[in-house]
Design goal:
By secondary structure, this protein is mainly β. The strands form 21 sheets. The protein has a 5-stranded mixed sheet, with no helix packed on it. Strands 55, 57, 59, 60 and 61 form a 5-stranded antiparallel sheet that branches. Strands 1-3-7-6 form a 4-stranded antiparallel sheet, with no helix packed on it. The relative contact order is 0.08.
Length: 772
């Protein structure tokens, strides 16, 4: 555990008198240069500045003379040999004049190895996705302070070395990071970070959309750029009736049923949950008015009733029909229905023009002609009979014109399976059994013996092949067995089935059409089903299925006590009450509520930081982590809370409330972890390392032995420690401290032996011996 060295220098100087002789003018040291050197350095030339130096004065390291050169009464130089600088530590620099009179002492610090940045590279990021990565360093004198000018748009490097934020722009960015240790040593390194993907996420299709027409198929595919595919499309109210938006492809399609200008909003969401939207306008026009009956009209016969109905489309119904010009041969036109009816009395070819008007006043006309044949014994029914379909009832009645009634009918040749001819009514009827093209010949005779014959063709089609299963399949559950039969009608059985786009874990039986299996991923899926009959007719339709997650089992955090000691590492376990059919990825999250002051950055997981990743494999109970699941309790009184966040297939399945446990760290007396005595010159420093969970130390009591007698000195330090604990920067060390009390001795400092130190707060005291 890293902690800052916080040195508190009390203004109190303790004068411990001992018998010693002194020169009337003592030397004084004001400045040493340099005052630090890294461990392992070769010998260092030290410049010592001060007053009252004499020829023959020597510079001493912890009281031992080192090679010295006299320059003046205010300046000496000395050589610190390399063995003294071999290891990190401290030395007191003093000047001893001839006669043994010693100066005050200044501290020379031997620092650790040079600080070095150990991170080799930083990982990639993506626009819109949260990013977090921490740089690392070694050597020098921790703690470290990090800095840089810039990282990448949306990212920043904080003083603890963490790169965090949400990238906003794709590209490759170079930056130089610098680390500085507590002794002022610095190191720098240049890194390159790549942000992949598009930084601009938007709908590219422009508004208004291309227009459509009532009753006609419409298709327009919307497009987006940027973000992280795949995209998912949604549309708000206002889409024309009869049209839909495919959520996967972004295609607007359908057959509009009403005209007008339609306004609606479309939103697209990418895989990183970024969204973009755009307002669209779509104009649906009415179809133009036109006469759909195509010339020529069928022929009539003198004396035989005639009927021909004209039809129109587009415009604004209802329609009104008129004969604009010409001769209809004695036939009349119904203005409402458009039916041309009557019994022709004269043979010939008659030309005329038909006009239709709609309710909006639009008009359109077209020329037609009708041929009226002389009266003969003929069968006017067309040679190509209306088509039939297998399994569908069929009926066709034949007529005769000319001759003299009564008439006698007979089927002389051909026919179709499932159909029979009734001579008394001249009707072909029944239910076709077999598809194909069939011929039949009819003979009719009148009362005078005249006859007429005609051969007809009849096409019997298989019934239309279609899938009859509803487009939304029954709900499926992740990890649970699923089965649903697809059904079809029409065509010529047997059928063969296939699919495209079914969720992983599901498949269709080609022979039975049963979709079955165990879904392996949750979500909403669109897929196509194709059915093929025995004559290779195919039909394809789009279907949907929802695969939902099963209920989340309860998660338990175990092995953590309700209360714990400070500066303690506590392992724990995470488990489920029952197996889950999918991989669960989770995070253990750590928070801390101190009883007083700021937080404690030393409270963290064993893996570092206040979040720890783990997984629970499908079908198992216990969480697995790349590093051991454990937490460090820190050194501040308060309540530590560990909570869980669970995800499966990218979906948050954390129960409400989230599973959590709390650990209590109580307020207590100070704790002394180590004590160090640092002698030098005419005095010494007592350095105490420890912590106080209550963030309080009120006094420090020191016990000394001088000439065989014991004396005690109590120093009030409450204000000193309060200033440290209330400093915002101390939160990163919890309640840890390094308290240094300097002492100056008039006389022989070695005659004074520090024995013990006691630190006290309102909850108690802690005492430790001072090693010599």
């Amino acid at each position: 555990m890293s902690r800052k060295r916080a040195v508190f220098c009390s203004v109190l100087a303790i004068l411990l008198r001992a018998v010693a002789s002194a020169q009337s003018t003592a030397p004084a040291v004001t400045v040493i240069s340099p005052s630090t050197a890294p461990a392992g350095s070769p010998g260092v030339v030290l410049v010592v500045s001060g007053t009252n130096f004499q020829l023959g004065s020597v510079v001493a390291w912890n009281g031992a003379a080192i090679p010295t050169t006299y320059f003046s009464s205010t300046q000496l130089t000395a050589s610190i040999p390399s063995p003294i600088l071999a290891n990190p530590g401290y030395g007191t620099i003093t000047v001893i004049n001839p006669g043994g009179v010693s100066s005050n002492g200044l501290i020379f610090t031997v620092t650790g190895s040079a600080v070095t940045i150990t991170t080799s590279a930083v990982p990639q990021g993506a626009p819109g996705a949260a990013y977090a990565f921490t740089l690392t360093a070694t050597g020098g004198a921790p703690p470290y302070t990090w800095s840089t000018t810039a990282v990448a748009p949306g990212l920043a490097l904080n003083s603890s070395g963490a790169i965090a934020g949400t990238p906003t722009t794709a590209g490759t960015f170079n930056f130089t990071a610098q680390v500085t240790d507590s002794a002022g040593q610095a190191a720098s390194k240049t890194f390159s970070i790549t942000i992949t993907g598009s930084s601009a996420f938007s709908i590219m299709t422009a508004s208004p959309l291309p227009g459509g027409m009532v009753g006609q198929n419409y298709m327009q595919v919307l497009t987006a750029s940027g973000g992280t595919p795949p995209y998912r499309w949604t549309v708000g109210p206002g889409l024309p009736t009869g049209m839909t938006l495919d959520p996967a492809s972004g295609a607007i399609s359908g057959i509009p049923t009403a005209s007008g200008v339609f306004d609606f909003t479309v939103q697209v969401t990418d895989a990183a949950q970024l969204s973009a939207s755009r307002e669209f306008a779509l104009t649906i026009n009415s179809a133009p008015l036109k006469i759909t009956t195509a010339p020529p009209l069928f022929s009539g016969t003198v004396g035989v009733a005639y009927a021909q109905t004209f039809s129109a489309s587009g415009g604004a119904p209802p329609y009104r029909w008129t004969v604009l010009s010409g001769n209809t041969g004695g036939l009349t036109l119904d203005p409402s229905s458009g039916a041309l009816r009557g019994t022709p009395t004269t043979a010939g070819t008659f030309d005329f023009t038909i006009q239709v008007s709609d309710s909006a006043g639009a008009q359109v006309s077209q020329p037609f002609s009708v041929v009226v044949n002389p009266p003969t014994l003929t069968i006017p029914t067309g040679a190509t009979l209306p088509s039939g379909a297998v399994g569908a009832s069929y009926r066709q009645t034949f007529t005769v014109v000319g001759g003299t009634a009564p008439y006698t009918w007979s089927l002389t040749n051909g026919g179709a399976p499932g159909l029979s001819f009734d001579a008394s009514t001249a009707t072909l009827s029944g239910t076709p059994l077999t598809p194909g093209a069939f011929t039949l010949t009819l003979l009719v005779r009148d009362a005078a013996g005249a006859s007429g014959t005609k051969t007809f063709t009849l096409t019997v089609s298989p019934s239309s092949l279609t899938i009859t299963t509803a487009s939304q399949l029954a709900e499926a559950t992740l990890g649970a067995a699923f089965s649903q039969s697809m059904t079809a009608s029409g065509g010529v059985p047997p059928y063969t089935w296939s699919t495209n786009g079914l969720p992983d874990g599901l498949a269709i039986d080609p022979a039975t059409g049963v979709i079955s299996g165990i879904p392996a991923a949750a979500g909403t899926y669109s897929f196509t089903v194709r059915v093929t009959d025995s004559v290779r007719t195919t039909y394809v339709d789009l279907f949907r299925i929802n695969v939902s997650l099963p209920p989340t089992p309860s998660a338990v955090i175990s092995n953590l006590p309700a209360s714990a000691q400070p500066a303690e590492q506590l392992p724990f376990q995470i488990s489920l009450s029952s197996p889950f059919p999918a991989l669960i990825s989770g995070q253990a999250l750590l928070s801390f509520a101190p009883d007083s002051g700021g937080g404690d950055s030393t409270i963290q997981f064993a893996s570092g930081g206040r979040s720890a990743d783990f997984t629970v494999a499908a079908g198992t109970l216990n969480a697995v982590s790349a590093t051991r699941l454990a937490l460090q309790t820190g050194t501040v009184a308060g309540t530590i809370t560990v909570s869980l966040r669970l995800l499966a297939g990218g979906i948050d399945i954390t129960p409400t409330p989230a599973p959590s446990v709390t650990i209590r760290i109580e307020r207590a007396a100070p704790v002394i972890q180590s004590v160090r005595l640092i002698r030098g010159g005419n005095g010494f420093n007592i350095e105490v390392t420890g912590f106080s969970t209550a963030r309080e130390v009120t006094q420090a009591t020191f016990t000394f032995s001088v000439a065989g007698q014991t004396s005690t000195l109590t120093v009030p330090v409450e204000n000193l420690f309060n200033a440290w604990f209330q400093d915002a920067s101390s939160g990163q060390y919890g309640s840890q401290f390094v308290f240094t009390q300097p002492f100056t001795v008039q006389g022989d400092a070695n005659a004074v032996t520090p024995q013990s130190v006691t630190l006290t707060n309102r909850l108690g005291s802690a005492t430790a011996n001072i090693p010599q």
